Amino acid sequence: MYILAFESSCDETACSVCEMTEGKRIIKSNIIASQVATHALYGGVVPEIASRAHIEAISKITYEALSVAGVSLKEIGAIAVTNGPGLIGALLVAVNFAKSLAFAYNIPLVPVDHIKGHIASNYMTYQELKPPFLALVVSGGHTSFFDVKSYTELKEIGSTLDDAAGECFDKIGRVMGLPYPGGHAMDLLAREGDKNAIRFPSPSINDTLNLSFSGLKTSVINYINTQRQKDIELVPKDIAASFTRTVVDAICSKIGSALKKTGYDKVVLAGGVSANSHLRAGVLAECKKFGAEFYAPELSLCGDNAVMIGAQGYYEFLNGVRADESLNAYPS
For residues 2 and 93, what is the distance between their CA atoms, to the nearest angstrom? Predict the structure, then answer.
């Protein structure tokens, strides 16, 4: 069946068509209207601007996604849409557009959780992948471990208690004067630096699968400000490398315990920060250490996109999930 999917939880307006059956998962189109250039002017996402940009883009990219896929609305078996978590104003754009389209054409409407969607991006990269497995979702809003019991059932078994890893990458990158979004620039810069140059406090919370990044973020920002106040020249590549190592080491230190807790032998990495080369390498090394298989989405599916929503939407559809005209969005 063909799934038409929408994603607008933050600053990417996305629409895709996926062909999904029991034996194959095919991306027919993957259209994204990015707002990076707009929000770069402000050093971060401005919710009201993001919402207005979604309104301007969503109709156009829907026509484009259907055209690229070579599929008409009459051939669509279900419409999937992210209804949370995310920026409430941004979410409501795609939710209301998808509702209108679904009821105008009498097509089943399927709400999708954004986090489940990120995990489902791996289904489109690996045809053989199926639950159960351990999932690690690392993004601008989340850093969590999940026991994925089935395509539609998961349980959070550990998470950050405050800031997310992706948020820290972006905010520290902004303080350092790196191009927006800071996460990608930090990844590149960290490759050139000495990861042992500066010692920062670990965000790992002992004897749990939880983390706390707020102290680490404050420590790095204080270090940068102190060096500037003392008129000591900063070495950005060493700051990036040392900070990145601290984040990756803390996250990876939990993988062994998470595998033991779940009893699984597969680790699925997902979320925007899954594109980070250092995190990928770290998680892969841990998987080899514990004899677990490692999965991570292709880079084009790491960030917010509608393909992942279509993939998860298919399994929610099979599980009987449907929404009516009362469908709403939720921010958290």
Answer: 22
In contact, 3 and 77? CB cutoff 8 Å: yes
d(CA 203, CA 250): 6
Q: How far apart are CA 123 and CA 301, in angstroms?
A: 11
Question: Quick check: 42 pLDDT over 90?
Answer: no
Residues ≥6 apart with Cβ < 8 Å to 60: 33
Render pLDDT for 140-161 as a digit per residue (tens, 0 to 9): 899 999 999 999 999 999 999 9
> Is position 328 within any domain?
no
Which among 194, 175, 277 is positioned nearest to 235, based on CA atoms? 194
pTM over 0.90: yes
141 within 8 A of 115, measured Cβ to Cβ: no
Evaluated on CA atoms 192, 195, 201, 204, the torsion sign reads positive
284, 196: one domain: yes
User: In the structure encoding, which two tokens stand for residue 168, read together?
Assistant: 């820290």
Total number of domains constituting the chain: 2
> What range defines the domain where residue 89 resides?
2-125+302-318
Q: Are residues 84 and 141 in the same domain?
A: no
